[in-house]
Amino acid sequence: MTRPVADPRAFKENARHALGNPAQRRSFREAMDFLTEKRAGQFPDAAEFQRLRAIGENIRKQALARLPDLLEQLETRLTANGIVVHWAEDAAQANQIFLDIANRHGARRMVKGKSMVSEEIELNHRMAEHGISCVESDMGEYILQLDGDRPSHIIMPAIHKTKADVARIFAQHIAHEPYTEDVNELIAIGRRALRGEWRNAKIGVSGVNFMVAETGSLVLVENEGNGRFTTTVPDVHIAITGIEKVIERLDQVAPLFSLLTRSATGQAVTTYLNVISGPRRAGEKDGPKEVHLILLDNGRSQAYREANFRATLQCIRCGACMNHCPVYARVGGLSYGTAYPGPIGAIISPHLMNLESTKDLPTASSLCGACGEVCPVGIPIPDLLMRLREAARRAEPVAGQGEPLKGQGTARSLVEVISWKLWGALYSHPSWYRMFVWLASRLRWLAPSRQAGWTQSRVPLRPARRSLREQLSSRR
């Protein structure tokens, strides 16, 4: 089954629906508490975390500062290693590259390891339109694909499914397997079903966690081993990633790897760390005959151009900001309607999908600051959320911004504009302000009982019977 296409414009409706589902809210709350406790156990020393985070932040900032040069160096090294490099400006170009490679090899089936960028470009949908199936091999993604559902978390995509849900899904879609709710047996059933996919697929698809410009290497982090199968068993391996994932040196992988695994799943290390530096060479017994890398822009250059938004690209996709976000924990990842939910999705999706369709996402935050505090590479997420909120309501660039974002100003309201102009006029003319205050205090009974979003959880605002100035004057 193919999963539905993302639509962030339905965020408010989706959030209301999620808030009305107490079972889902309880499940998410328990899952997020579990993940935050595991992460805390990996960073017992706050000073150590701050030191390691400073290292990770500097690595990512230095790489972004030299991004064009590092990408050119990366392409040179990859090409020398026998990896074919493709550049894609947007999702359509990336999907066309996949289609061209598949047609050239006569492939009608791809097996795919975990890749958030493939979710971003809706690879499964686009290939299905041309009669090519993409089978997910990450267990969580595989469960969701069978059920026609979408991932709700970057690291644990099926976190919103219970073991009873998985048992039902497997019983409906995997033939000759008994119904069971035993977790170990469910995993075994999934593994048996997937083994044949690697043998039959001509193309394996993967994401990339880091790209090393110095050596021309692709680094993949995983726990299940499906990534290793996907990148070695099929004759053709296609990796896809965003242009921002490049780092300068191989020795920089270690601190980023430590930050990623400890922040994402609370593990000191993951089960597998794969470093791919080329296709199968003469004398080697396994590995793909071809390796392709698709470097995707899809709005990242827009974020890169603006100094105020460039920090967005520092992200290493650990998901820690989601695990600590009170909004995400209540509405779940599916509510966002984007490949990247939660706080990181709220700041990166406007660049990937434009502000017009994602204008509600930056407002899905209490600005408590937890996301910024736990980010392992120091992304100032609350500040970026505020900048995007301002950009959504201003057609012209915000302070320090070079040019408007795509869709900037789409949340602009004529009523809001007029209200602020009137407010500014009142505060600019003391006599007008005193007159307004006098009238407001005498006509306080005209204050409406419903005041837009304010009264959803608060009592209505009503002017005092006498202004502070009048009260002070009466005491003299």
Describe this structure in words.
49% of the residues lie in helices and 10% in strands. By secondary structure, the chain is an alpha/beta fold. The strands form two sheets. A six-stranded parallel beta sheet has the order 1-10-7-4-2-3, sandwiched between helices. Helix 16 crosses helix 19 (381-392). The longest helix is centred in the first third of the chain and has 21 residues, at 22-42. The chain is globular, with a radius of gyration of 26 Å.
Q: What is the count of β-strands?
A: 10
Structural class: alpha/beta
Query: What is the molecular shape?
Result: globular
Order the strands across the largest sheet as they lie in space: 1-10-7-4-2-3
Distance between the termini: 78 Å
How many strands, what sense, and barrel or not for the largest sheet? Answer: 6 strands, parallel
What is the count of helical runs?
22
> Uncertain regions: pLDDT < 50 for 5+ in a row?
none
Helix content: 40-55%
Q: Would you tell me the overall average pLDDT?
A: 92
Q: Radius of gyration from the CA trace?
A: 26 Å
Tell me briefly what this model is.
The protein is α/β, with parallel strands linked by helices. 49% of the residues lie in helices and 10% in strands.
